[in-house]
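Slide 14.
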Amino acid sequence: METLAPFKEVIDEIKEKGGDAVKYCYQCGKCDTVCPWNNVRKFSMRKLIREATFGLSEIEKEEIWRCTTCGKCPQRCPRDVKQIDDMIALRRMATGYGVFPAAVKPYRSVSTGLTEKGNPFNEDRNTRADWAEGLSVKPYKEGMDVLYWPCCYASYDPRLKKVAQATVKVLKKANVDFGILGSKENCCGESIRKTGNEDVFKKLAKENIKTFIDNGVKKILVSSPHCYHTFKNEYPEFKVNFEVIHTSQYVFQLMNEGKLQIDKGYEKKVAYHDPCYLGRHNGVYDEPRTVLKNIPGLTLNEFPEAKVDSMCCGMGGGRIWAETEKHERFSNIRIEQAIALGADELVTTCPYCITALEDSRLVMNHGDDIQVKDIMEIIEELL
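Slide 15: predicted structure.
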């Protein structure tokens, strides 16, 4: 006798949206043991997968939107259930029906900004390169060493503009021939794709790809691991391949080639935080640490959860735009861990991580106890 699924139409839609792997889950619960949400509240990825298996997903509730796509559960899953793909599939369903719980309602205005202005802030496209004023940054031309791609946050956010500015100063010191595209840039589309809005992602990706090709771009230098991941791993879906390198990797190369030398001392204790999309998703662990270790006087302290086990900051998967209760922010834990290590500075290489950590540092009244910096800001200070 054939066993009929209770909600076959829903199951078929989940499969169509990319969540077919839910059927492989045998409910071992390993995903729940490593999920960072369970450090701050009760959350069960196992339960969400089980509900999806039987077409019982509740797309009107926030639970399907909580996954930060940090990558911890897929690396432990014995059945390759592809939890990230499954959650994105459910979000595609919800987005298709226009269902957004209160915490993720900002995704609607973000989608509008991305569609109309090419950035999540709905800021004027013509001001995208204002961060570079006074730095004599050239427009990119074919034949340059690299295209520098700062990302939306480093282009518009006051705190993160400092990262883009520091990066430019480091590149100039190393005599790198680089340029930017300014108003021609769009968001890479990584985070809006993780919220389930595939149409906006494809629009952004196709426009960026056309811009890259029209301008003869071969090598892209990025400040954001999210841009890195998307250009490197997702844009090839459109039959293109660009060489993509993260700023921490590039500085590592420049140091090895003797083009960048740090002689000044930096007598500080530093804790390095691995961003999920640089580390777990793309395996870049050694270069940032080697750069830090090459700085005279700097003491590098490791977190108890580091490298492949690094704690998520909480901003991935589109959560950078969602409302997260103050007591449920993973970054609060990271700040406390860094202070417990005796670190003077918490250093990372991701604009999302810096946003989360800076916010936690201030909200938790640790403004005088620890600083949050990008590696490029430290390098620039020592030039």
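Speaker note: The chain has three domains: 8-102, 104-253, 261-382.
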